Amino acid sequence: MASVLNHELNKLGINSSILNLMKGGLREDPFTHPLLTMAAGVDEYAVKTPGVLTQLSHLRSRQSRVVINEIADFDIVHLHWIEGFLKTDDLGKILARGQRIVWTMHDMRPFTAACHHAGSCIGFTKDCSNCPQARPQFRKSIELNLSNKVNTIGQASNKISFVSPSQWLAQLAEKSTLVNGSPLSVIANPINSIYFEPIDRQKARQKLQVDQQSLVLTIVAKNLDDPNKQVQEMIEQFERFATISDIRAHLFLVGDGGGTLRTNSMVRKLGNLSPASLRDVYSATNLILSGSLVESFGLTLAEAGALGVPSLTSMG
Description:
Elements: H1 2-11, H2 34-47, E1 76-79, H3 88-96, E2 100-104, H4 139-154, E3 160-164, H5 167-174, E4 184-186, H6 201-207, E5 215-223, H7 231-244, E6 249-256, E7 267-271, H8 275-284, E8 287-290, H9 299-306, E9 311-313
Parallel strand pairs: 1-2, 2-3, 3-4, 5-6, 5-8, 6-7, 8-9
Helix pairs in contact: 3-4, 6-8
């Protein structure tokens, strides 16, 4: 999303640039920022309650990798994923020197004390005390995380605007103590224009060596190993369907990871694809599967929808 916006702003003659401190995630490149990796590991194995699937960023959010003087000359700072790169104190310094902040939320983390998806918990509407996703000994510290953030941002609510890619996430944010009262807009994730240029399904299937009569299902995830995406569970359901059905079917898996996933002649892992190659996969597909437990309106569904491909999703 950031790269699309940056490109369009530059086309309009507006001075815009991206400060990107990591090409992928910590799983793909854990040694780029070793202290950040250690903090994330402590969050995962010491802070988080055992058995919780969703991610928790407590110690990781106290890390800072951005030298804020590098962005001192810009009028607007547009934030996306900041856990481990900008601390709350950094946000306060940016606001104090008169810069405006636009914060695009991709999950619930911007307005919670530590969790990325709160599930049935509504603690973020109050103070995040007694966080069920954290072990008891860390709950007071987590509560202070949110209090510090509310105090810092609340003092400059006229200088910070929030953006949500979906009505669902915006409605949750409006209930939070952090966002409540600040400007909040719903702007869908921008879709690469290549996904509005469909190609013939027959040609797409020829590229993928799939016959025209087969039913083709596709799963797309940034990280196929993320338990929240339920990729293994969907593979198992697909195999049951293929066993009892007379229909020839194929399941494509697109994304990073997936080394431990079970594949066979019907289940094929394609890896991380370029937009053009992903368009071919979409065009060859009958149905996109999304079993994510914690999802806003994901870009995958929007891209596939632009090509007229329907999706089957979980209600969470």
